[in-house]
Amino acid sequence: MKMMTNTFQPPVKMSMLTFYTKNGAFFSWIAAPFRIKDVHILSKCGQDALQYLIFQRYLLAYLSAVCVLCIVVVLPVNFQGNLAGPGDDFAKTTIINIEPTSSLLWIHTLLAPLFLVTIVFTLRHFGNSQKFEKEEHVTRTVMICHIPPESCVKELITQHFTEAFAGLEIQDVQFAFNVTQLMLLETQRLAAVEARKSSEKMLTVMNMRPQMHSFTCGYVCCCGVKTDAIEYYSTEERLLTDACEAEKASAFKDVLGIAFVTFQNAEMAHRVVHDYKISCRKGGMPNTSTLTGVLKSFEWDVKYAPCPDDIFWENLSVSPGSLTVKSLLVNSFLFIMLFFLTTPSIVISTLDMIFYKQAEVVNRNPFISEFLPTLLLWTFSALLPALVTWSDRFLPHWTRSEKHHSQMRKVFVFLLFMVLILPSLGLTRCAVIHLKLVSIIRKNIEV
User: Model-level pTM greater than 0.70?
Assistant: First the structure.
């Protein structure tokens, strides 16, 4: 049952920040991100995180080049014009300051497509630089879902494929079990082990047994009877170990109807997956055997199996329908928040309508009229990925790659709505609600 109980354990024994700040300097953490190498990121966070950070490096390099060209070339060119008024210093730095008949506009005309071509080649170079191992695309193992739990028997699965697909050789068949509670207990057990080791280390260093409050919020509470930390966590570790063993015996009896079948080579696995894909597209019946009625193979969902380290084994007990419902609820909540609360244009217009008596003062203040909208937009754009990542914790994805792709797609779509679509097209509905709120606030202010 190695495949069913395998969980992701990073090979790095200590955190990278601890590794690079072990000299004890107070500000050593500032230089730590610049000293961390790709191999450490790969071993600690995985391939997806490393690929994303490399992508960010390419973007930083491109934006640095654009910034240098804008400061060295574009900004001096814009200063050559004289259309902006004497009191409008900001307009002198933009293209508005150049006369429409000036030949200096050709510099903007040439730089715009140059920036476009540069970003295309930059992203193309990034895509070509990514090297993928063969095992990531070709696998000999297929994942089969919707098998009747009472029919999850290795001999039945082997006999079915032997009869339905001539010449197939199966090397192994493993089944997934409901290990949700087992994984939770294992996490608690590992936490107790780490706490016990930390207490023993404190005893060795300080030569005194650490004491603790063994109840919720005991760290900030000074009342109550203290207990010995080593004895407490040793007892917790022993109880959780026994609970894990008992739950393991119970979990391996609760089959989920998911099987992992390993064939002799990748061509055999491709043959099976291709047959089921063709059958689903054309509405036909895949290859049958004498056990088709028992196994209900015509209802199977067959696909290539992900890497064992990529699977959230505790989430396999969640049905795809339940995941869809939770996704709709979470994404609807995020969209409503974006639509009504995180549009900077609405916030600025609302503040202007509330303090309409001070409108002249507000317009003269560059912090409110120019800097504050940009600050709000930047703040909401920076907080959006964190909000999406936090909300994705409530969605029980089956694989880590699926989770990462979901977060990437949602961040892109929500940023598109928040920065472009909602400020330009969706302000009318929001304005109705804000007008009612503003009218109430105005009355309170005037009174």
Answer: no
